[in-house]
């Protein structure tokens, strides 16, 4: 088991190395002048020349890459051309907001999706199954940004029930200052007992989290349904049913556990997918997270920031995949992880 | 047992999730919390990009202007409408007859934020010398200054190399803010850039969060005092999406939003509680042409193209009236502006010029680039394409990210670059020289002279104008008129329009007066809330 994890992590490092190589060269092949951007709106030629030396842009590209990698290994992710802050500090500032959003979305998707999938499987081809099918296909196929705008229009525009965007109301934030611990407003306000901020942040979370939940919800529902149906045809399910063991016990005790494998794999993959989806959702809901940071960095050809975000996303993929495999092994002792 | 353990974890997750969902549903309808300890008067300003990249006022040269002018102050402030300078940190000033020595008398009893240090001539000298030494932002505006003397704590004397207009430099919206010398010396050179401030302005930094809120609170010891109605706190929010910004304005979640797109402005017009205010700005849309490549290397062709631009249509349709056609290369409202110096739309004249140049009926293709995302500029380009087609010129329009289009325009090989590019230019400080030197002065390594224009007579005249502006403004304006007449005749650049600044405001926000010399600055000290 330990050997397996070590091997996977080493493989992950190789993958990450490849990612840095590709991203660095693609980001630097795009025509743009980071030195001019660095000194700002009205640069003079001397300022640009000085910045070029300061940023090491006067060196050949492969030397720049080696320098970048050297710094990276020492924990220095470079300085953003656009914000002039260390990239790592920027990511640390923006990532918690995104994670808060993604986790809430996935939580909602799992909590609603699994029961919906079970319902769909146990009442196959009956009305609940058709309803669930409609919901899940709709959730997967609606474009995210459109769903986001529809939700805004309905809950903010017509009903006036939920806020339009942002993480918390300005006045609430100013009146009840929040101490930063994890960077997640919900967790921090819960830990410090700051109830006004907690409830306010929660209302701000509802719409973006629902939007984030749509795609994984559809996938999880369908996946749970199909794998459950497959399992229910197996002899070890048919036999206890024939012995008269109650249906609920058979389904929830024996069938579901065996059917959850594919669902968890999908859950892991959608987590990484969600990181990319936040680009759109954060923009519509004005959510100051990694997605917004990334899109602004791309628009201003801020290559250290682009590299940083790409690395974070790649790391997430590697780690989530590993974690999913470990969970699968834990759920199903037949799976052996060998080094 | 093992079973129970595994399922226990899953159950726990499910319960937590359910709690979150129920909690969210439960308090969804309630809105913000009920009892607030004491509610401060808060003004909210929406910015479409990060309000601050450079916290150090010596380095700033972009959007920071909206924040820095609330926390820092300059010696004097320029009012271009009245063409007057208002005293701020200096109570009065004078210049020697030869224009080479400018003396400023400082206000007594002005305190800096946090430290309570008094502002003296030492701080002024330190701030300017530090800006020059850092060489970032717009430090070049101090080029005329030879030496700064501080005969006593309340007097500053600037000795100049040539009689430049130092008043506009000292009043610049960038690079001329006075910082607390003691605080900066104590905390180190990089302290300001790390997100601190040391100003004398009405508001001081309370907290800021990247991509989130930038909060400022009133400085109790501000020298003007806090009599009358003012805001206790001001908040800057970054909202990149214009549709979201518009909805926030409609919902009363923000008080002021500059730079909304024309559609969002039209959508907001007439909405209860929202007012639209227009003000002149010094932002102009320019279209430098590639004067080193056929066919635009021919002056007659450039003139023909200038006659073929549908100016009125662009202003009325693409900009929905939020602009006026440019006259000369210095925007209306900035001294040095030249009236009645523009091309009309005259397709017959354009055809005639093309024939004269050896291109009867046109028959060539031009490539135009514009910054992607700028919808109004795209529409202007489309109108140009339609109009050019009528004189037989095929205009290919391409959207490019600003960085890329600028890089392409700077290409040392003129054959490889676009024929025309469109972008917005505005001067860094209230001096027409800034427009002229950047866009039309002969340049070895191309930076902003994107037409590759070079005319020794123009270079000479503009430098002469700069060096007379300090003693004889009228003479300088005359010289600037001459320069512009030559430039307009040579037609290296399309001068399309001077934009108007359009602000969406809550009607309850009073006292807001836009000033084009301080683009988009609210000067919140003068604002207050009434009604709502």
How would you portray this structure in words?
The complex is a heterodimer of chains A (339) and B (532). Chain A has 339 residues and is mainly alpha-helical. Chain A has a domain at 91-290: MetI-like fold (Orthogonal Bundle), CATH 1.10.3720.10. Chain A has helices at 2-29, 34-39, 45-54, 61-73, 87-122, 127-141, 144-158, 170-175, 185-191, 195-232, 235-242, 247-284, 290-299, 303-331. Chain A is globular. Chain B folds into three domains: 42-48 and 197-279 and 501-529, D-Maltodextrin-Binding Protein, domain 2 (3-Layer(aba) Sandwich), CATH 3.40.190.10; 65-193, Dipeptide-binding Protein, Domain 1 (Dipeptide-binding Protein, domain 1), CATH 3.90.76; 282-499, Dipeptide-binding Protein, Domain 3 (Dipeptide-binding Protein, domain 3, Roll), CATH 3.10.105.10. Chain B starts with a helix and ends with a strand. Chain B is 31% helix and 22% strand. The model of chain B is unreliable at 1-36 (pLDDT under 50). Chain B contains 15 helices and 20 strands. Chain B has helices at residues 2-27, 65-71, 121-134, 166-170, 181-187, 242-250, 262-268, 299-308, 311-318, 347-356, 375-389, 402-409, 432-440, 456-468, 473-490, and strands spanning 42-47, 76-79, 84-87, 90-95, 101-106, 145-152, 155-160, 203-208, 213-218, 233-238, 256-258, 274-288, 323-325, 364-371, 393-400, 420-421, 423-425, 493-506, 509-510, 528-529. Chain B has 532 residues and is of the alpha+beta class. In chain B, strands 11, 12, 13, 17 and 18 form a five-stranded antiparallel sheet that branches. In chain B, strand 14 (364-371), helix 11 (375-389) and strand 15 form a beta-alpha-beta unit. At the A-B interface, helix 2, helix 3, helix 5, helix 7 and helix 8 of A face helix 1, strand 10, helix 6 and helix 12 of B.
């Amino acid at each position: 088991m330990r050997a397996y994890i070590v091997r996977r992590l080493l493989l992950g490092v190789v993958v990450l190395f490849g990612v840095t190589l590709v991203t660095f060269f693609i980001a630097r092949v795009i025509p743009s002048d980071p030195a001019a951007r660095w000194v700002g709106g009205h640069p003079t030629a001397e300022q640009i020349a000085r910045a070029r030396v300061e940023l090491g842009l006067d060196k050949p590209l492969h030397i720049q890459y080696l320098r970048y990698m050297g710094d990276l290994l020492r924990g220095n992710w470079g300085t953003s051309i656009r914000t002039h802050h260390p990239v790592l500090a920027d990511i640390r500032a923006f990532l918690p907001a995104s994670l808060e959003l993604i986790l809430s979305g996935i939580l909602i998707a799992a909590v609603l999706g699994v029961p919906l999938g079970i319902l769909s499987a146990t009442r196959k081809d009956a009305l609940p199954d058709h309803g669930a099918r409609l919901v899940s296909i709709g959730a997967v196929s609606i474009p995210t940004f459109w769903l986001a705008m529809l939700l805004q229009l309905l809950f903010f525009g017509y009903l006036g029930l939920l806020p339009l965007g942002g993480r918390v109301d300005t006045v609430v934030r100013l009146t009840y200052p929040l101490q930063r611990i994890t960077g997640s407003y919900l967790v921090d306000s819960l830990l410090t007992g700051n109830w006004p901020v907690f409830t306010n942040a929660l209302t701000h979370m509802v719409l973006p989290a629902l939007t984030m939940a749509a795609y994984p919800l559809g996938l999880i529902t369908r996946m749970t349904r199909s794998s459950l149906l497959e399992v229910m045809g197996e002899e070890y399910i048919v036999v206890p049913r024939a012995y008269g063991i109650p249906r609920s016990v058979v389904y929830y005790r024996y069938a579901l556990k065996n059917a959850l494998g594919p669902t968890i794999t999908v859950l892991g993959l959608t987590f990484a997918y969600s990181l990319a989806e936040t680009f759109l959702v954060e923009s519509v809901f004005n959510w100051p997270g990694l997605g917004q940071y990334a899109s602004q960095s791309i628009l201003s050809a801020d290559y250290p920031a682009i590299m940083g975000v790409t690395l974070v996303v790649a790391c997430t993929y590697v780690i989530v995949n590993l974690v999913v495999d470990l969970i699968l092994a834990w759920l199903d002792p037949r799976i052996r992880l060998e080094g | 047992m093992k079973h129970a353990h595994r399922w226990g974890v899953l159950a726990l997750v499910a319960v937590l999730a359910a709690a979150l969902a129920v909690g969210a549903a439960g308090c969804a309808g309630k809105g913000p919390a009920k009892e607030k300890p004491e509610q401060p008067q808060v003004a909210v300003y929406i910015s479409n990009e990060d309000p601050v990249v450079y916290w150090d006022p010596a380095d700033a040269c972009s959007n920071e202007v909206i924040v820095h002018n609330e926390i820092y102050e300059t010696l004097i402030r320029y009012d271009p409408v009245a063409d007057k300078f208002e005293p701020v940190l200096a109570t009065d000033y004078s210049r020697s007859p030869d224009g080479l020595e400018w003396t400023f008398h400082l206000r007594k009893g002005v305190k800096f934020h946090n430290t309570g240090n008094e502002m003296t001539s030492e701080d002024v000298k330190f701030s300017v010398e530090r800006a020059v030494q850092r060489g970032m932002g717009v430090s070049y505006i101090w080029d005329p200054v030879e030496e700064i003397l501080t005969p006593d704590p309340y007097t500053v004397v600037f000795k100049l190399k040539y009689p430049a207009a130092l008043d506009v430099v000292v009043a610049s919206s960038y690079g001329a803010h006075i910082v607390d010398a003691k605080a900066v010396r104590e905390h180190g050179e990089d302290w300001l850039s790390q997100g601190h401030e040391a100003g004398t302005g009405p508001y001081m930094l309370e907290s800021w969060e990247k991509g989130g809120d930038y909060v400022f609170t009133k400085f109790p010891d501000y020298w003007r005092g806090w009599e009358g109605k003012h805001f206790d706190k001001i908040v800057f929010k970054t909202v990149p999406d214009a549709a979201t910004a518009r909805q926030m304005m409609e919902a009363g979640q923000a008080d002021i939003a500059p730079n909304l797109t024309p559609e969002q402005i039209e959508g907001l017009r007439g909405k209860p509680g929202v007012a639209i205010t227009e003000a002149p700005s010094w932002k102009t849309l320019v279209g430098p042409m590639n004067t080193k490549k056929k066919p635009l290397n021919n002056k007659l062709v450039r003139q023909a193209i200038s006659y073929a631009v549908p100016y009125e249509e662009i202003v009325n349709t693409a900009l929905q009236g939020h602009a006026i056609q440019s006259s000369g290369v210095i925007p209306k409202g900035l001294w040095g502006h030249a009236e009645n110096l523009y091309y009309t739309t005259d397709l017959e004249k354009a055809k005639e010029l093309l024939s004269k140049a050896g291109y009867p009926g046109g028959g060539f293709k031009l490539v135009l680039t514009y910054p992607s995302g700028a919808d109004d500029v795209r529409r202007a380009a489309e109108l140009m394409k339609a109009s050019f087609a009528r004189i037989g010129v095929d205009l290919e329009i391409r959207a490019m990210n600003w960085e890329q289009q600028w890089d392409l325009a700077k290409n040392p090989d003129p054959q490889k670059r676009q024929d025309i590019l469109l972008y917005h230019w505005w001067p860094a400080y209230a001096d027409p020289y800034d427009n002229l030197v950047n866009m039309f002065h002969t340049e070895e390594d191309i930076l902003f002279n994107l037409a590759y224009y070079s005319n020794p007579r123009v270079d000479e005249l503009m430098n002469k104008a700069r060096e007379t502006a300090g003693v004889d403004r009228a003479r300088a304006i005359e010289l600037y008129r001459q320069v512009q007449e030559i430039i307009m005749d040579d037609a290296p650049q399309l001068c399309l329009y001077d934009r108007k600044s359009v602000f969406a405001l809550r009607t309850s926000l009073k006292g807001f007066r836009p000033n084009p010399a301080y683009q988009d600055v609210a000067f919140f000290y003068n604002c207050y809330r009434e009604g709502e």
